Amino acid sequence: MRRTTVRFAGMVIGMATRKVTITLDEEDLDAIRALATKGKTPNVSAFIQHAVRVSLSDAAEWKAMLAEALEETGGPLTDEEKKWADEMIGAKPQRRRKKAPAA
């Protein structure tokens, strides 16, 4: 793992990084590269790092809002309520993944 400093929209963020491979639609990658060419983002990696941070932050906020709403309305959903909600949004049952061995 290496330590880098990323600059994005005036922010400087120090973090440990690890290289991964991801798959993007060609049109999305072209759009990100166009932003980098115009100087709107430093490069593709910086754009993806920022997008991941925003997504994780959004997920945490939604989780907190849901917990608060559940607390105000009687606590966690029952298994029956979860099943109903999943059916309403067309969610497929989640399969449990095996945990990767510790590195």
Residue runs with pLDDT of under 50 for 5 or more positions: none
SSE order, one letter for each helix or strand: EEHHH
Strand content: 5-15%
Domain count: the total is 1
Arithmetic mean of pLDDT = 85
CA-to-CA gap between the ends?
Answer: 12 Å
Q: Which class of secondary structure composition applies to the elements?
A: alpha+beta
Q: What is the C-alpha radius of gyration, as a whole number of Å? A: 19 Å
Helix content percent band: 40-55%
What does this structure look like?
With 103 residues, this protein is α+β, with helices and mostly antiparallel strands. It has one domain. The chain is built from 3 helices and 2 strands. It has helices spanning 26-37, 44-72, 79-89, and strands at 2-8, 11-17. A two-stranded antiparallel ribbon has the order 1-2. The longest helix is centred in the middle third of the chain and has 29 residues, at 44-72. It is elongated and about 50 Å long. The two termini are 12 Å apart. The mean pLDDT is 85.
